[in-house]
Amino acid sequence: MNHPSRKRRIALRLGIASFIVLAIGLSLPERCLVPVEGATSRDWNPDAFWYEPWGKSGVHKGIDIFAVEGRPVVAATSGLVVYRGEWSQGGNVVLVLGPKWRIHYYAHLSRFADEDPWLVHSGERLGDVGRTGNAANKPPHLHYSVVSLVPLPWRITRETQGWKRMFYLDPDGLLAPRHD
């Protein structure tokens, strides 16, 4: 009767497989493009990340890239589209799971790209800049956030909602250098 040892072997194999999958995801290179076609760092306020007070969420956990309504929004990095639809605050949103187990969140799109891919490549069109959701009465822009699924506890601060900083990354620091 080797039932317990068989269960241990299965658990060990699952643990090793999980570790390998996690390690592969963390080791993938990540070079993020500016997710609005033609935008430069002049099109957003680098101090907008973790700005407070900010509406119902209390703290602004991303950057707003301002552009003409309808300008293409592109994938900042390659990844797996895990959601494409409507959320009350974000309006039309797309979530892409990219390298390093990070979710790239694109919100307020006026419309989605015609194709509905499950895998996107860096620079591939996701939709258009808009003002859906809670941006209805604001200038058109893309709200762009990056969320780590792997907690980064050393990033916690004493700021408002500072414990959430272990998950939210400043997109301004992740975007590839631009030639402004």
Note the topology.
Elements: H1 3-27, E1 51-54, E2 58-60, E3 63-66, E4 72-74, E5 79-87, E6 91-98, E7 102-109, E8 111-112, E9 119-120, E10 125-128, E11 141-148, E12 168-169, H2 171-174
Antiparallel strand pairs: 1-2, 3-11, 4-10, 5-6, 5-9, 6-7, 7-11, 8-10, 11-12
Describe the structure.
This protein is of the alpha+beta class and 180 residues long. It has two helices and twelve strands, in the order αββββββββββββα. The protein has helices at 3-27, 171-174; strands spanning 51-54, 58-60, 63-66, 72-74, 79-87, 91-98, 102-109, 111-112, 119-120, 125-128, 141-148, 168-169. The strands form three sheets. Strands 3, 5, 6, 7, 9, 11 and 12 form a seven-stranded antiparallel beta sheet that branches. Strands 4-10-8 form a three-stranded antiparallel beta sheet, with no helix packed on it. A hairpin with a 3-residue loop joins strand 6 and strand 7 (102-109). It is globular and about 65 Å long.
Structure summary:
The chain has helices at 3-27, 171-174; strands at residues 51-54, 58-60, 63-66, 72-74, 79-87, 91-98, 102-109, 111-112, 119-120, 125-128, 141-148, 168-169.
| Quaternary class | single chain
Category by helix and strand content: alpha+beta
CATH topology of the largest domain: Glucose Permease (Domain IIA)
- Termini separation comes to 70 Å
CATH-defined architecture of the largest domain: Distorted Sandwich
| Helix residue percentage | 10-25%
Strand content is: 25-35%
- What does the radius of gyration come to? 19 Å
Query: Main sheet, how many strands, which sense, barrel?
Result: 7 strands, antiparallel
Q: Which spans of ≥5 residues are poorly predicted at pLDDT below 50?
A: none
Give the overall shape, derived from the CA principal axes.
Answer: globular
Our count of helices gives 2
Task: Specify the CATH homologous superfamily of the largest domain.
Answer: Glucose Permease (Domain IIA)
Number of strands: 12
- How many domains in all? 2
H/E element order: HEEEEEEEEEEEEH
Q: What number is the mean pLDDT?
A: 88
Q: Quick one: CATH class of the largest domain?
A: Mainly Beta
